[in-house]
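Course assignment 3, question 2. Fill in each field.
Student: A.L.
Task: Predict the tertiary structure for the chain below.
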Amino acid sequence: TDGTLSIGSIAFTPDGQHVLMLASDLSCGFATLTKIHLVPLSGGEARVLFTDMDVQLGHAAVSDMRAGAGTPPLFSKDGRSVYVQLSQDGGVHIGRFALDGSSFELVVAGEREVYQFALTPEENVIFAAADPLQPGDLFSFTTGSNKERRLTNCNEELWNELTLSTPESFTFRTSDGWPIQGWIMKPAGYAEGAKVPAVLEIHGGPQAMYGHTFMHEFQLLAAAGYAVFYTNPRGGHGYGQVHVNTVRGDYGGRDYQDLMEAVDYVVNTYTYIDASRLGVTGGSYGGFMTNWIVGHTDRFQAAVTQRSISNWISFYGVSDIGYTFTQDQIWGNPWDDLDKLWKHSPLAYVKNVSTPLLILHGEQDLRCPIEQGEQLFIALKRLGRETQLIRFPGADHNLSRSGHPHLRVKRLSHIVRWFVKHIER
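Answer field:
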């Protein structure tokens, strides 16, 4: 290749004539949808398959049950098709794509997250999947008969002891007419007619998506007496190229509006939500947005920011995500666009913060270095605002997903503690 592609995974076709790549051409920077590219081993131009498909290929769903989900492309027995995951409308599915570009079909779909799969010699599919009430189990799909069978039920005994909250999906239209998908969970054991507090959760990325999968953090908050709602505002995957590309150059703009309009929709539609008892939390990009929110509104009674960004100027060039990220997402660099980077930095609005803010950060976070949390903490303390900084020794950016179990428990305990302290149940 000529270096113009961002390549996610590669595989040699069974006939040995091509390299298949899941890659993007970066026409929309880091927000570019992934496509199937075929490159002749003998040399020549890459051929892009299914160019009109407005769907993200690969695994883009957010979960706190695992890190690094996803399976490389796998070929059919006859070598004429390839099986690839795709992320759409909150679900992660398995599709079969003809290598000549003639056909595509969903093989395994549904309201769930298929996070890994394998093919048997007979070309049946063995896959691991989660849904909002199950962290993950194994299933088989027989391609000839299109029959699916569940192979495991790992948590049956545990679920008999617990009460879980089932998410309800909703879609609303923003003030400019754009459809936004979201979910809401009632507190576990909710008593009809009661008014309850609620927590807005914001996913990271932003090129990712919430979906039909199990979230331990959400269930824990529901068990503690809070409704939980979460959406896929513009900037995330699952809804096409325009949706995911909107945030680039506009962090804190249209994405913030989408989230605030989601809050408006939820409190006006679900009358059991008490609009005077709201919390907000998120990690990574979701942490950035939590920081941004508390600097621009006081409608939340408490907030928890996790592994966040607060200052785009000091973030430039020091993250393991790569030195091009800030330029790609904020459209600026410190020597030419200092004012722009500061304009999009939550730290610039720290004087406006009145919401009690808990800051959670791993000391070995190389994606969003801990100095981002430290700067925000020191500023809030010097301004006399209510805040705490919890440092997690040895923890990296994946603390919530693959961190040490005792630190993961501590993290969840701190989140619940902060909301309980500041939001009456």
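Instructor remarks: DSSP finds eleven helices and 21 strands in the chain. The radius of gyration is 22 Å.
Grade: pending
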